[in-house]
Every structure is written in C-alpha cells, then in structure tokens.
Amino acid sequence: MQAIAVIGGGTMGRDIAAIVVAHGGTAHVVEPDTARRVAVHERVRAAVGQLGAAFEPAHLAVHGALAEVAWSEVGAAIECVPEQLAVKRTVFAELERVATPGAILGSNSSSFPISDIAAGLATRARMVGLHFFMPAHLVPAVEVIRGADTDASVWQRAAELMRELGKVPVMVRKDIPGFLANRIQHALMREAFALIEAGYAAPEDVDKAVRFGFGFRYVAAGPILQKDLAGLDIHCAAARTMYPHLANDAAPCAALERRVAEGKLGVKTGAGFYRWDAESARAEQARYERDLMDALRILERSLGRG
User: The domain at 3-172 falls in which architecture?
Assistant: First the structure.
C-alpha cells in the first residue's frame, strides 16, 4: 500500500488516518489549523487502539500545508475539509498541481456530487467520491461514487483500496445528491421527525422503535434482503396501505427547523431532542462506540474475518 494523504484533520480526517495506520500504511494528514494539528496524534492513537492494532508513530505524518507532503510516495488522497463546495474545489485544484498522475483523488463529501467538485478540472477522470460514515474507523461501509467523468478503472481501484483498508465498498454507479445511504437515511428521518412533530411519539420512543425493532435486524440483513426473507407480498400490501400517509415534505420538518433556529443543535450546544451536559455527552459517546464495536464483531463474522 502506498502512502495516503488525508486533507483535513478534523474528526473524519483523523479517523480515516487511523484506518490507514491500523492497516500498516502511512497517513499524511494535512491540517492548517494549529490546534487541530496538535490533536491529530492523540485521536489517531486512540482510534488505532480501538481497531486492535498497534500505533506506529512513523506511519503518521502531520503537515500544515499540501506543499509539505512527499507526493511522490502518495498513491491516493482523501479530502475531508468542511462541507463547502468552493473550499473543496480549491483543494482539488491544488491537488491537480501536486499529486502524481496515477494517484486516486477522493472526496469524503456527504452531500456534494463528485461531478460538481470535479467540474472543469483536468483530474476529473481519477476523482471519486469516498464517503465514510462517522465514526469512520468503526463503521465498515464506504460509498465509492463514480462521477460523470470518473474512469471505470479508477472507480474499481478505489474500491480495492477500501478493501485493503478493511472496509466494505458500496458501489454507487451514478453520481446523485446524497448517494445511497444518506438518501435512505433522510427518508427515514423525515418520517421520524414528522411523527414527533405530529405528537404520535416522543423522540425516545422513535429511537426505541428503530434500535430495538426493525433496526435490530439490519445488523444481520439489509432492508432488501430482509424483505426477501419475510416475503415481498407482505411488504407490498403494507406499502399500499401506508405510502399515502407517509411524510413527503420537500423541506425539513418544523420540529427540526425550530430546534436549529433556537440553537438547539444536540450535544454540541447542550440540547437538541435530548438535553446534554458534558458528563452525559461523554458517557453516551463512550456507550455508542462500545456498542458499535460489539456490532462490528458480529459483522466481521459475516465478512469471514472473525
């Protein structure tokens, strides 16, 4: 495995770097902010430990600018900068100048089509979407998105790189906003928020319905396979009854918009649909990651790794 450059040293960038290091590769993290740069080593070390690997300091290099990276050693670059199209296009315009001609250029954007980021760039044939899910080092799937100009061989090479990093590539054949997972997730969230706003359930009961109900089954089977197992005739009949009553608003639900307008953004502000203080936030984050690691062990068996 050639070295991999990770552009952006925030939460996603640090966790992606940890995946590289845990699998024996060298990660070059580029982060211009001094405070974030200082935090990279500690977070990567902790994430590598969660993956059951030994942290090798020599396999992690942290830089303040793209120009500091030894690009001749880099086989792929993964952009993890803030979700602003102009910022991402600026990064890839610079990568066009510094990256070697054979390097895969990936974006971890969760919303912008790679075709929009790549528009007008000479490197667009080797640009792919590589959408990791938070926490990136624990969630197995990575969406590998082929843009309108992405070469098929680059798309396949990017998927193989994800396999080398122990991930499960989800091949997205056409570049669409939201890709696969976020579109499915947002369809679920639209209905969940609508049910809360209409007074049918409290947030904690919506969460229980997913975690301890149908969501529990998704560790063992995705929604399509699960319906094949249960019977498509049953699902079709239920869909015919329910679809006319499902939320189909073109804008975010008022329950969500209202909280955002009030600055109730979740853990980061101390309130969202739940109330948080520093202690409860730390405890819930730790519980969340422990449960994800337990679920990962189950999925490892399905992948033939356990």
Answer: 3-Layer(aba) Sandwich (3.40)
Determine the residue type at 267: V
DSSP string, 70-120: -GGGEEEEEE---S-HHHHHHHHHHHHHHS-TT-EEEE--SSS-HHHHHTT
pLDDT digit string, tens, across residues 7-52: 999 999 999 999 999 999 999 999 999 999 999 999 999 999 999 9
Burial state string for 248-269 with b = 16 or more CB within 10 A and e = fewer than 16: eeeeebebbeebeeeeeeebee
pLDDT reported for residue 301? 86
Nearest Cα neighbor of 62 from 125, 103, 114, 17 is: 17
Report the distance separating Cα 165 and Cα 71, nearest Å.
20
> Which class does domain 182-275 fall in?
mainly alpha
